[in-house]
Design brief:
Shape: globular
Structural class: alpha/beta
Strand order of the largest sheet: 5-4-3-2-1-6-8-7
Number of strands: 14
CATH topology of the largest domain: Nucleotidyltransferase, domain 5
Order of helices and strands: EEEEEHEEHHEHHHEEEHHHHHEHHEEH
Number of helices: 14
CATH superfamily of the largest domain: ATPase, nucleotide binding domain
Bound molecules: adenosine monophosphate
Distance between the termini: 14 Å
Helix content: 25-40%
Number of domains: 2
């Protein structure tokens, strides 16, 4: 089965065409600046170079049309006709409390997803536009929605409720939802598989450390806690997001700077995290490591503060699960950044992680970092959200 995986943002659309039997990526790409001047599609067939084509994309339907054109192009395409796309899997950011699992998309389901829009006003409407564009162009192809929040719907009330008046939860569904669920699910299952153990016997802490970052506690295969909240702003210090804050800071800064609370939240999302802490050096960990090596104190402090926050969450989740068997690092920083892992690992000795500093130098591959016989196994597992979405799509379409 060929599955087209779509991840649609407000002005971008990422795609991968995956053969579900071989799990091979046949082609992938990105449409940028949809609805804005200077839009372009970057298309890459497997094993070949990227091809960038400037093309007019007034809306997402035009972008999807262009993706199909590239995929079926006699020169750079990988399929002959649209008929060779058997299903489409869509990444959807917020499923609220309505979706605890992936779902086949039809009119009824789309109306329910729309009800979740106020929980993710920047992301969900864009996801829906992508879905509708695909349905317009491929009306007979089955479509599946895979939610970032779904995996965390197993969290108990004590983990997802905020210490606020209960009416805010009852009336507005203000609670913690968590994100990156597809990744936490994929990586925790893969960890059990690599170790040859049943996931139902394992307490796993997954550290998804990318530009956006979250930690989750996966107990016996279910998410019981995670660091992101109502929105992806809570939890870890990230590339540009602040993570946990005293909420009183919002109005305090708003008053001092003469700006609105909304503007402060925007700063917390886009100008904070390691970017803000480093005094604007970068949100990219490679740049920060370089600046630190050149003696930049703020960059050094940003990296220290980042690692400290991750270590605190690991400690909290070991407590929440009354123990931990496996700690997994994944996503851009978790997979590639040996220094960040080492800095976090320095706090974990008490758990019995015995991280081997030589093994920790490896990057971008599956590796067990701990010495054999360590009490807690620490590993690196590259995440693959697109493959997870393709697998879910096949499972639901076959069912
Ligand atoms: P993601 O959001 O998962 O794509 O992760 C992006 C982050 O991963 C960026 O902050 C990058 O600095 C970091 N990253 C990616 N590759 C490397 C690398 N080779 N070494 C260090 N950090 C990396």
């Amino acid at each position: 089965m060929n599955v087209l995986v779509i991840n649609c943002g407000s002005s971008s659309l990422k795609y991968q065409l995956i053969n579900s039997e071989s799990e091979e990526v046949l082609a992938k790409g990105l449409c940028e600046r949809i609805g804005i001047d200077g839009s372009a599609i970057v298309h890459q067939p497997a094993g070949k170079d990227k091809i960038t084509t400037e093309a007019d994309m007034p809306n997402h339907t035009a972008a999807v049309q262009l993706v199909i054109e590239k995929l079926t192009d006699p020169e750079v395409g990988v399929i002959k006709t649209l008929d060779e796309i058997d299903a489409v899997g869509h990444r959807i950011v917020h499923g609220g409390e309505k979706f605890a699992t992936s779902v086949v998309l039809d009119d009824e389901v789309l109306a329910v997803i729309e009800q979740c829009n106020d929980l993710a006003p920047l992301h969900n409407p864009a996801n829906l536009i992508g879905i509708n564009s695909c349905r317009e162009i491929m009306p007979n192809v089955p479509m599946v929605g895979v939610f970032d929040t779904a995996f965390h719907q197993t969290m108990p009330k004590k983990a997802y409720l905020y210490g606020l008046p209960l009416s805010y939860y009852e009336n507005y569904k203000v609670r913690r939802y968590g994100f990156h669920g597809t990744s936490h699910d994929f990586v925790s299952k893969r960890a059990a598989q690599i170790l040859g153990k049943d996931i139902k016997d394992l307490k796993i802490i997954v550290c998804h450390l990318g530009n956006g970052a979250s930690v989750s506690a996966v107990k016996y295969g279910e998410s019981v806690d995670t660091s992101m909240g109502l929105t992806p702003l809570e939890g870890l210090i990230m590339g540009t997001r602040s993570g946990d804050l005293d909420p009183a800071i919002i109005t305090f800064i708003a008053e001092k700077e003469g700006i609105s609370a909304e503007e402060v939240i925007n700063i917390c999302n886009k100008k904070s995290g390691v970017l803000g802490l480093s005094g604007g050096v970068s949100s990219d960990f490679r740049d920060l490591a370089e600046a630190k090596a050149q003696g930049n104190e703020a960059a050094k402090t940003a990296l220290e503060t980042y690692a400290y926050r991750v270590a605190k969450y690991i400690g909290a989740y070991a407590a929440a699960m009354n123990g931990v068997d496996v700690i997994v690092f994944t996503a851009g920083v978790g997979e590639n950044n040996a220094e960040a892992r080492a800095e976090i690992g320095d706090y974990l000795g008490y758990l019995g992680t015995n991280i081997d500093s030589e093994k920790n130098k490896l990057r971008g591959e599956e590796v067990i970092l701990s010495d054999e016989g360590a009490k807690v196994t620490t590993m690196v597992i590259p995440t693959n959200e697109e493959l997870a979405i393709a697998r879910e799509t096949v499972r639901l379409v076959r069912a």
